[in-house]
Write a structure and sequence with these properties.
Number of strands: 3
Shape: elongated
Structural class: mainly alpha
Low-confidence stretches: none
Helix content: 55-70%
Radius of gyration: 18 Å
Mean pLDDT: 86
Number of helices: 6
Strand content: 5-15%
Order of helices and strands: HEEHHHHEH
Length: 130
């Protein structure tokens, strides 16, 4: 089961460098382009998860997988909120909604969430083979 968590962790790390958000004219952004602090937090949580995986502690890997899921959900909420805030100078609310809608999520989020789910959904081997 350690290998499944390790694959999930690798997916999370690789996913942080994939395109996560597309902003017209600017292009695709990965985690570092979105927010340096959130990217560093993702990598710190991944490093802590490596500690648990290497020490065969599935519980630690699962805890940090849950924390990564929470970080990803927070990031998605922050992206939507920031895009609406970015266009708040427009005079009509319908314009704000329209322009905020041009910021699109990309396929990198699938890799991020898949990796974190793999880390969380691993079952522990409680059997003693004698």
């Amino acid at each position: 089961m350690k290998n499944i968590q390790l694959v999930g962790l690798i997916l999370v790390i690789i996913g942080s460098f994939l395109p996560l958000v597309h902003v017209p004219v600017v292009g695709n952004w990965n985690y570092w382009d979105l927010n340096h602090y959130l990217a560093i937090m993702c990598w710190i949580l991944s490093a802590c998860a490596i500690f648990g995986i290497v020490n065969n502690n599935i519980k630690i890997g699962r805890i940090f997988g849950i924390l990564l899921l929470l970080l990803f959900c927070f990031t998605l909420f922050a992206i939507k909120f920031q895009s609406k805030e970015y266009f708040s100078f427009l005079p009509f609310k319908s314009w704000v909604e329209t322009f905020a809608g041009i910021v699109k999520l990309r396929w990198g989020w699938i890799v991020e969430f898949l990796g974190a789910f793999l880390m969380v959904l691993v079952k522990s081997n409680a059997k003693n083979l004698n």
